[in-house]
Amino acid sequence: MFRNLIAGVALASLAATAHAAFNIDQLMAGLAQHPGGRAKFVEKRTLAVLDRPLVATGEMTYTPPDRLEKRTLTPRPETLVLDRDQVSIERDKRTYTINLASRPEALAFVDSIRSTLAGNRAALEKNYTLQLAGSSEHWVLTLTPTAQRIATLLQRITVSGAGDQIRTIDYLLADGDRSELTIEPLDPR
After folding, report:
1. What are the contacts of 129-137 at 24+ separation with CB within 8 A?
2. Confidence grade of residue 25 (pLDDT, cut at 50, 70, 90)
3. Torsion on CA atoms 133, 136, 137, 139, rounded to nearest 10
4. CB burial string 134-144: b at 16+ within 10 A, e below
5. Domains of the chain (ranges plus CATH)?
6. pLDDT at 5 over 90
């Protein structure tokens, strides 16, 4: 009888611990509640053809659920606006616009960030396997492409953060090149 009581308490304790563990649904719910805002960024791109990384700095603005503006200030000004299925890039007083619906692999790549920011798990799982590590205070979400058309371009995306704030986005491309975006909120709540 005493053994059954101990076994019951141990199982209840394990169930409570498993229930308390931070999971993807909790992360997505927190991200979905984030109201958006402005942030500073530093982007470090490591390319095999260069001796040292390229570093760019600027500001980003996210307006849920599907508008992201990235204004690069250094080394040279550039504005990238993602609004629904359109990407506009302004550089050297020229504007280029791309309709992502006509480029499914680009749309899947862009949606990886937009869907993470919006906490949209279903959209992420259309093209990626999700793996979460850590706790709500410091988490790491790894997105691994499941679609071959994306995997030919991208090995993985690693997003890390705290609570409902994304702090870094690390892209590892299929050719080994890498881009790490570090984000610091300008208007913390």
Report:
1. 130/24, 132/22, 132/23, 132/24, 132/27, 134/22, 134/160, 135/22, 136/22, 136/26, 136/27, 136/30, 136/162, 136/163, 137/162, 137/163
2. very high
3. 30
4. eeeeebebbbb
5. 22-185 (2.50.20.10)
6. no
